[in-house]
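During the no-cost extension, the postdoctoral fellow (Dr. R.K.) reprocessed legacy sequence entries with the updated structure-token encoder. One reprocessed record is reproduced below for audit purposes.
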Amino acid sequence: MKDRMKSVAARFRAPATHDLRRRVAVLEAEVQECRQLNLRLAELTDMVTDLLVPLARADEAEVRAVLAKYHESI
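Re-encoded structure tokens follow.
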């Protein structure tokens, strides 16, 4: 009887464990995607910040240099 109970419990546990592992893998992939998007957003924010001062001073040469640096990075 005890072996039968273990067998029944194992049958219910196995799919649940597999399902949880699959769900965790999906969530980990989504977290990694969010990290990459956040990094890209931070890079773009830095670029915009770097452009604001030269644009405010109407320094076209510096604006071109910042844009060239950005284009080289992508």
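The chain has two helices and no strands. Residues 2-57 form the longest helix (56 residues). The remaining legacy entries will be reprocessed before the final report is submitted.
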